[in-house]
Design goal:
The protein has about 170 residues and is α/β, with parallel strands linked by helices. The protein is built from 5 helices and 5 strands; from the N terminus they run H-H-E-E-E-H-E-H-E-H. The radius of gyration is 21 Å and the shape is flat.
Length: about 170
Amino acid sequence: MTRLSSRRPAAVRRLLLGAGALALGLSLAACSRDGAQGFLNNLTSTGGLKVQRDVSYGPDARNVMDIYAPQDAAGAPVVLFIHGGSWQGGDKDGHKFVGESLARAGYVTGVMSYRLAPQNVYPSYVQDAAQALKVLRAEAKAFGGNPDNLFVMGHSAGGSTLSRWS
């Protein structure tokens, strides 16, 4: 009969230590303001999707959106995503993972940036969202989307922008 040692081999201890350090690093990244978004964006690949970046929907430099679509979309529903940030920060670039995942789920997706406070005041954010939706609707067919099947969603301030429409 062989007696098992209670001591783990050094290689196993190093592996467990490395896994623990990775888990801690990911946890800390998720706790930082943009860490989770950056982590998700780094894992995001847009291979196999149609992507058009920086589609202008207005005169301001921040009046741009990225459009993501399934490669062979035909009559797909269309979604506009509005980022959060207390109307004072954030942009479309922090939400590449949203456009990619919705496009892989079969949606033509616009991820927009909007003008920020305090330089811009209410209702500029709502006006930006309405203008972005108008342009996305006009571009929908070119990406295989159905312009009459539109949805709008947002995170944090982007979600409260939606409540202003109701």
